[in-house]
Write a structure and sequence with these properties.
This protein has 327 residues and is α/β, with parallel strands linked by helices. The protein contains 14 helices and twelve strands. The strands form two sheets. It has a six-stranded parallel β-sheet, with helices on both faces. This is Putative glycosyltransferase.
Length: 327
């Protein structure tokens, strides 16, 4: 089976890296080919090469209908995969004109593809308003990389956050909470892993983003932060950083609503809804290493059972393989 993925972003776009690039070796071991084309780097020979595949996956690229018509004319199955609420965006809403264009492209792609793959139930419910050809395939991690490591006894507690510069605003809104926690609990440190420093006036350890360094950073944490807004875009996210925290035995404290609540429960995380609850939850864990360990261990087991890349890779193969066998 030969499958081509059309990635919506650049080569290091996280969702493409973790959704498909991480699967390539596993697919090859099963005798399948999984190639990735990045829409921002399409070469002149793209159209001649794309015809050689058995199926195509468009990964959340809301491309022009003219592109779609040319793609569908090839006559092979096309799937659409998305892991964000692509009908909206965080912070500032689309203008009415842009929203009209986005809605039109969603309708076009969802109507014409052979199947829609979503990362969670919230997104699947949205897709089901257009078609019943919807598959829920969770985001997953390579557990040979994303795993807990032994930690030596230490007096300090490290609270941390990892994410893209575009999401730093979520973390920055926690400054007053973190300032009070760091003041009360002198044994606590704050660590941030990102492509840009947060705009903080409080002390923190900054680790500049480097590909391949994420797991080591997450493994060093004791508590993982997941600040989110209660708005449509965040409600549709299956936060990859939360999966990474859990896989490494790091309990999550955060705003757990929408799709995040499908895998973050009171067995592996603490849900908060206010500044007071943020302070209480962080203080509770800082003072209780046993609870950190309990929540962390539960998170590791959950990821092994439901978000193991090996299993999810097989699931993607099966979805596409069944479609090809019916053609």
């Amino acid at each position: 089976m030969r499958v081509a993925v059309i990635g919506y972003g650049a080569e290091n776009t996280a969702s493409t890296v973790f959704r498909y690039r991480a699967c390539q070796k596993m697919w090859a071991e099963d005798g399948h080919l999984l190639d990735i084309y990045y829409i921002k780097k399409v070469t002149k020979d793209f159209w001649s090469r794309i015809k050689s595949y058995d199926a195509i996956i468009n990964q959340k690229a809301l491309l022009r209908p003219s592109f779609g018509r040319k793609l569908f004319a090839i006559g092979i199955p096309v799937f659409f995969d998305f892991d964000d609420a692509l009908w909206t965006r965080p912070k500032k809403p689309y203008s009415w004109f842009t929203q009209l264009k986005v809605n039109g492209r969603i309708r076009y792609w969802f109507k014409h593809v052979d199947g829609i793959i979503t990362a969670n139930r919230v997104l699947a419910d949205f897709a089901n308003t257009f078609t019943d050809r919807v598959y829920v395939v969770p985001m997953a991690l390579d557990l040979s990389i994303w795993k807990p490591v032994p930690k030596l006894p230490k007096k300090e507690i490290i609270i941390g956050w990892a994410g893209s510069p575009g999401n730093l605003w979520h973390l920055e809104k926690l400054q007053s909470v973190l300032e009070e926690v760091l003041t009360i609990y002198q044994q606590t440190r704050l660590a941030v892993f990102s492509g840009k420093k947060p705009d903080f006036t409080i002390p923190f350890d900054y680790y500049k983003y480097e590909p391949g360094k994420e797991a080591g950073f997450i493994q060093s944490l004791d508590i993982g932060l997941l600040p989110l807004e209660y708005e449509p875009y965040s409600m549709g996210k299956s936060p990859l950083k939360a999966l990474q925290y859990l896989s490494c035995g790091v309990p999550v404290v955060g705003n757990i609503k929408g799709a995040a609540s499908e895998f973050l429960t009171n067995k592996n995380s603490i849900s908060v809804n206010s500044i007071t609850e943020w302070k209480a939850a962080l203080g509770r864990l800082i003072e209780n290493q046993a609870e950190i360990d309990q929540l962390g261990n539960a998170g590791v087991e959950y990821i092994r059972k439901y978000h193991n890349l090996y299993d999810i890779s097989k699931e993607l193969q099966n979805i596409i393989g069944k479609k090809l066998s019916s053609v």
